[in-house]
Q: What sequence folds into this?
């Protein structure tokens, strides 16, 4: 892949990449933008290894996901337990602040569950594709989706 091809592919996928990272960063736009920039630099440096047979978006999201995980590991933020969130801080159904409610709820999930939920529901990836992006098994993705859904239901006070 040459420079012009890379730029054309990035222009098509840039908005989706930023949305993906924004969800992973629970609405922190500055952090998401920094990670997007880091991921794009890494992708550009590795673009000679990209094969046209693969999906550019999946390849780019894999790099972005790994960049996110590396960043989280270096930050060592504590995962917020759902039980540790004060009940008054939990979003109420119908509060009218959908995006911020979603980001607050996503922030209660561990990074792996958050990644699977974000890729599946917000980006439309299949379980097989998520397994490839996150470098886990399909069974692990299914388990992360199940756990994440249940935690989000409880956090957002949604009945089955």
A:
């Amino acid at each position: 892949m040459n420079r012009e091809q890379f730029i054309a592919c990035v222009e098509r996928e840039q908005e989706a990449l930023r949305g993906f990272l924004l969800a992973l960063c629970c609405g922190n736009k500055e952090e998401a933008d920094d990670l997007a920039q880091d991921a794009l630099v890494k992708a550009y440096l590795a673009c000679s290894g990209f094969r046209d047979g693969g999906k550019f978006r999946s390849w780019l999201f894999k790099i972005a996901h790994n960049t996110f995980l590396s960043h989280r590991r270096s930050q060592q933020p504590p995962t917020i337990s759902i039980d540790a969130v004060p009940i008054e801080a939990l979003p109420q159904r119908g509060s009218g602040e959908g995006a911020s409610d979603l980001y607050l709820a996503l922030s209660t999930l561990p990074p792996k569950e958050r990644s699977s939920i974000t890729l599946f529901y917000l980006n439309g990836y299949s379980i097989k594709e998520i397994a490839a992006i996150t470098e886990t098994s399909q069974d692990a993705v299914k388990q992360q989706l199940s756990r994440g859904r249940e935690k989000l239901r409880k956090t957002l006070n949604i009945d089955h």
Observations:
- Confidence is low (pLDDT under 50) at residues 77-96.
